[in-house]
Amino acid sequence: MRHSGIEQKSYPLLDGPIGKTLVRLGLPMVFGMTAIMLFNVVDTLYVGRLGAIELAAMSFTFPVVYMLMHIGVGLGVGVTSAISRAIGEGDHDRVRRLTTDGLILANTTVVILAVAGWFSIDPLFRALGASDEMIPLIRTYMRWVYVGVGFLMIPIAGNSAIRATGDTKTPAIIMMVAGVVNIILDPLLIFGPGPFPRLGLEGAAIATVISWTVTLFASLWILGRRLKMLDRSIPQLGAMWRSWKEILYVGIPAAASQVLVPVAVGIITRMVSSFGPTAVAAFGVGTRIEALSLIGVFSLSAALAPFVGQNYGARKRERLRASIRFCAVASVVYGALTIAVLAIVARPLAALFSSQEDVIGTTVTYLRIMPLGYMFHGFTLMVMSTLNAVNRPLRAAALNAIRLFVFSVPLAWLGAHLAGIAGIYFGLVVANVLIGIISFLVVQKFLDVTDVEMAADSEMVAKADAPGA
Questions:
Q1: pTM, whole model, 2 decimals?
Q2: Which end of the chain, C or N, has fewer beta carbons within 10 A?
């Protein structure tokens, strides 16, 4: 058997100290995810200097761009789940097959999304509430996004395969380099100093696409040359279809669950738009700062996927239960710290993105209310990551659907009618608290059932190995 060298990378996930291992996995992802989120933060900072209309137009694109990213992330969840469990089981030939077929699947998905998206720009954004003045700006921005979406989706799948081995440093470095490229290109292409053309909002889109291109080539090189996780033989349709089914069993519910997030954000954006363009601009700024504030939670949640997947594949139930306890404590501590920090720095942060007092004031309202639910939201994300990693995608998707459409959207609507913009945000906080409690009950039930199943499996193996069996 031709080994890829990934075996050695997986052992710390199966045997190392749980807290230290999760921190080791999560810490590089903090930097990598921060770099990716800086794409949007830096774009928002510079576009905010163009004017409130441009900032509002860009804010309208957030749900759709998020939808594309979340579809890719959902497929990546399926890739990570399948590959990490294969590593835990010691089947390294299947690891290479799953990696290769996962990239082919991502490429196929890209073509479908790009064509559908290109021809739906105007009607979609009018439905979201964009004005006639904003539509040309949005159209120019989104056409570049659809041209370059392949440079985003394929690396997401590739980086997910790399993370499944327990290597979170390499994807983080790739994302950080791409983030630096975007930071450098943004002011050059948006404002056009010296020989560069002044492209405004379009320049922000072009800079982002170029940055995505960096991630594409880097992730393919790592998978093919360093980790040797790509199968260079001509793919057989039967084997590829088996890989696709395994990936999509988790990937489709995960992608659907991920897509629900920008759908819900789009609905809430429409609620916010009833309070005027400045409210939409402030909402866009607030969600950007929120994403950056929750980077630690997102990183730990993503780190759980390879850890839980490998330990589930190796049937190590005590490590599964201990990892959930660790994440529960981490979510509470991180959430409390975020509440304190954002309460202090909300106004200066908001002032970085806009000089208009009404935009600043509404952004501050967002940043002082929404963190109240972060510890519950963080734990829910970790539970969903756990369920996807152990091949329970429908439960994870159900939790997200309940969070968004049973709690978040209805409570935001109720809050808007009772207390305006602040009421929307308080409604979202209550939604996060409720789903956090439900997530705790769901994961405890899963762990109890898993204990029984794995104990029975161990007993069967012991009987089979007994003398005279």
A1: 0.74
A2: N
